[in-house]
Amino acid sequence: MPGTPLFNRKERRQETIMAEEHNPPAKPSDEADRNQLKLAQEEGSAYFRSLQYMANEVADNGATQQCGDMIVAFAQEEAEGMYMMKHGKLVWTEPADGENCHFEVAVLDATDKRFIPGLDVTLTVMTEDGTVVGAEHMPFLWHPGLYHYGRNWALPGDGRYTLRIEFPAPDFPRHDKTNGKRFAEPVQATFEDVEVKTGRE
Fold first, then answer.
1. What is the dihedral of CA 114, 41, 109, 45, to 10 degrees?
2. What are phi and psi of 124, to 5 degrees?
3. Are residues 52 and 59 in contact, defined by beta-carbon separation less than 8 angstroms?
4. H or E element at residue 106
5. What is the dihedral of CA 127, 129, 135, 140, to 10 degrees?
6. How high is the mean pLDDT in each 10-residue block of the chain (201 residues)?
7. Which of 111, 96, 108, 116 is nearest to 179 (CA)?
8. What is the SS3 assignment for 177?
9. What gap in Å lies between CA 48 and CA 71, rounded to an integer?
10. Contacts with 50 (C-beta within 8 Å, 6 or more apart), sequence order
11. Whole-number pLDDT of residue 23
12. 73 neighbors 13 (Cβ within 8 angstroms)
């Protein structure tokens, strides 16, 4: 499944951010009143706008896919350096030899579009003929504008790839007897025919 495009620089088209599939809103409960739920919606709307900006103005490609009560999104950029914690100190680290792509994954609550932390995300990248390039854990990455999961990759080169993003149901506790019975199934989202342009920042 190709997913709903966020952005494709080649065509310079505006995003159609997701299919018309929506989860019912959370209900006021003894755990979260109407104002708390409204603030959560505002938080999610702000995060979603940041995701749109990342896809439209920064990344080379991206798409979303709704998977039950979650929305899975990816964005693709050139490989980039990052601060890494080494021996208790932050050290700026350039991409490793051969790394020429950076994949980012965002997972959102489909009800309010807030970022979902604490997931064990794996990305599998395949060529057009189905050959697996690799399957890698995608750790959480702090970013000044958009929390996400991601890492640099070494790909064979420019081309069209299939991306499979998957993770088990999270094991964190859920507040709220009324609204908290959610995120109970493993998730797999497949994005086909993704045009990737490799490079290094």
1. -60
2. -110, 130
3. no
4. strand 101-109
5. 40
6. 52 36 81 96 96 91 94 97 98 98 98 97 97 98 97 97 98 96 97 96 91
7. 111
8. coil
9. 11
10. 145, 146
11. 74
12. no
User: What DSSP line would sit under 124-176, residue for residue?
Assistant: EEEETT--EEEEEEE-EE--SS--EEEEEE--SSSEEEEEEEEEPPP-S----
CB 65 within 8 A of CB 48: no
Q: Which residues, at least 6 apart from 145, have a Cβ–Cβ distance to it below 8 Å?
A: 50, 53, 54
**Fold classification of 4-12+27-196 (topology level):** Immunoglobulin-like (2.60.40)
How far is residue 86's CA from residue 176's CA, in Å, rounded to a whole number? 39
Q: Which two tokens stand for residue 173?
A: 């506790």
The pLDDT of residue 20 is 38
Phi–psi pair at 132, nearest 5 degrees: -80, 120
Q: Which residue has the tokens 């959560």?
A: 40
CA 36 to chain centroid: 25
Using alpha carbons only, how large is the chain's radius of gyration in Å? 17
Cβ atoms within 10 Å, residue 163? 21
Residue type, position 46, single letter: A
Residue 17, both tokens: 């951010």
pTM recorded for the entire structure: 0.89
- Tokens standing for 199? 């490079």
